[in-house]
Design a protein that fits this description.
The protein is an all-alpha fold. It has one domain. It is built from 2 helices and no strands. The two termini are about 20 Å apart.
């Protein structure tokens, strides 16, 4: 069902955004090596959210 699929993708994109936001918020208090990792993972999550919402089309 297309509506269900679209809703599921939207929920997944929202979860990716929340996770990316949480990792970004942790950057300021993280040691440099961990901050670099958190930044990379946050960027990947943001890219996933973008693609899940049709940004890559």
């Amino acid at each position: 069902m297309p509506g269900d699929e679209r809703a599921a993708l939207g929920e997944l994109a929202d979860a990716e955004r929340r996770a990316a936001d949480a990792r970004t918020a942790d950057l300021g208090s993280a040691p440099p090596e961990l901050a670099r990792l958190l930044a990379s993972v946050a960027a990947a999550g943001a890219a996933h959210a973008y693609l899940l919402t049709g940004g890559g089309s």
